[in-house]
Write a structure and sequence with these properties.
mainly alpha, Serine Threonine Protein Phosphatase 5, Tetratricopeptide repeat
């Protein structure tokens, strides 16, 4: 309350300078949310004062607006940019507020003949353009933005050079009154040129920001629509979660009772298993896992009563083009399980026979082993005798130098 009272006491130029400073801080670097809200409050106060004073009229042009009041045209633009940067719970509402403020700024500038003709013809309010036209429009807008930034930098450097020259001239010779009037006129024209260039730069940024906010709004609306559709399926999701919870409880209870119960026969029918999980049947119920085969043909054949030759021939004619299955998937699975059990039992029996003592011992040895041992001993003795008769190196005496 105290801050709003202080803002009411601040004059419009000082309040605008304060808000412009906060806008510059938010544009050049990151700024905290509290400072942004203070800047928005100051700009709203400036907007109220400008409206109350009636500084701008739709019947005027840019030449009719005084240089002192030109800067207040930027109030809606600054307000739109700061509003877009403020973090809000409802982002979509903040985007709409920022769009309204930027559109208000563009409409005021358009009334004062400050908006370029090409932007008026292909503004964001018009119909959709082709990709080539949008690209050309963006390129032209980028060039205008660069030219405005270069012109503002040139005006700033020119003003600094003039300030240094005036200070140096004031130190050397006194300045006449007529010269002071000429300097003031130059400053006034330069200030007007600077504000008009700033407004032109703000128009380019406003169009770019409007296009960006429009795309973000479309994305948020799409997300909101998808969330509303997902909300309709919330009941179905709750039912699925309840089924999953019930199935997990059943499995947990069954796992807890498994060590104390006799193992039950496996359930090979998917439909019967689903009935057991959802509580419509019990695992102990009798289920033969059989399906009735599909019957093709007239109604007289469905009962399976072929009482005449005509019905027998008709039964052979009205048949599907493919072979009908002779058993269900569950029955085939049961047969494969039975075959696998038999195969495992046979392999276990073979492994048991392979590791038995009778297989490792083999047939009893014959008496020929003793004869083999005698022959080996005689051969070893003959070899020892030969080595005694022929010492090592005895045959190489003639090869030695002194042999």
């Amino acid at each position: 309350m105290g801050e709003s009272k202080n803002m009411d006491e601040i004059p419009l130029p000082a309040l605008f300078d304060q808000a412009k400073k906060i806008h510059s801080m938010a544009t050049e670097s990151s700024c905290d949310q509290e400072t942004l809200r203070k800047g928005i409050e100051a700009l709203r106060r400036c907007d109220e004062m400008v409206s109350r004073l009636g500084l701008f009229s739709s019947n005027e042009s840019k030449d009719d607006v005084s240089t002192t009041n030109l800067k207040y045209l930027l109030v809606p633009f600054y307000l739109g940019e700061l509003t877009e940067k403020v973090a809000q719970d409802d982002r979509l509402q903040g985007i709409k507020v920022s769009q309204n403020q930027l559109k208000e700024f563009i409409s005021i500038c358009e009334a004062l003949e400050l908006v370029p003709e090409e932007e008026i013809e292909t503004s964001v309010y018009g119909s959709a353009d082709s990709a080539a036209a949008r690209r050309a429009k963006k390129i032209a807008r980028f060039k205008r933005q660069r030219a405005a930034e270069a012109k503002l930098q040139e005006i700033k450097e020119r003003k600094e050079r003039r300030g240094r020259s005036l200070r140096a001239a004031a130190l050397s010779t006194p300045v006449e009154s007529q010269e002071e009037d000429a300097v003031d006129d130059d400053d006034g024209e330069e200030e007007r040129e600077a504000w008009l260039t700033s407004i032109s730069l703000a128009i380019c940024k406003a169009f770019d920001l409007l296009e960006m906010l429009k795309k973000e709004e479309e994305m948020l609306l799409a997300v909101k629509e998808r969330q509303s559709k997902e909300g309709d399926n919330e009941l179905a999701r709750e039912i699925l979660d309840e089924r999953t919870k019930r199935a997990e409880t059943w499995h947990r209870n069954a796992a807890g009772q498994a060590p104390f119960l006799k193992p039950a026969q496996p359930i090979t029918c998917a439909t019967f298993a689903q009935d057991v999980i959802e509580g419509r049947a019990k695992a102990s119920d009798v289920h033969e896992h059989k399906h009735k085969p599909l019957i093709f043909g007239p109604a007289s054949l469905i009962g399976g009563r072929l009482t005449s030759e005509r019905e027998r021939i008709a039964a052979q004619v009205f048949q599907p083009s493919h072979r009908m299955p002779t058993m269900s998937i569950e029955e085939a699975g049961l047969q494969e399980m039975e075959m696998m059990n038999k195969w495992q039992e046979r392999n276990a029996k073979l492994m048991q026979e392979a590791h038995s003592s009778w297989h490792n011992d083999g047939p009893p040895k014959q008496g020929s082993d003793d004869e083999d041992d005698d022959a080996a001993q005689e051969k070893a003795r003959a070899w020892d005798d030969w080595k005694d008769d022929h010492p090592r190196g005895a045959g190489n005496k003639k090869l030695t130098p002194c042999g």
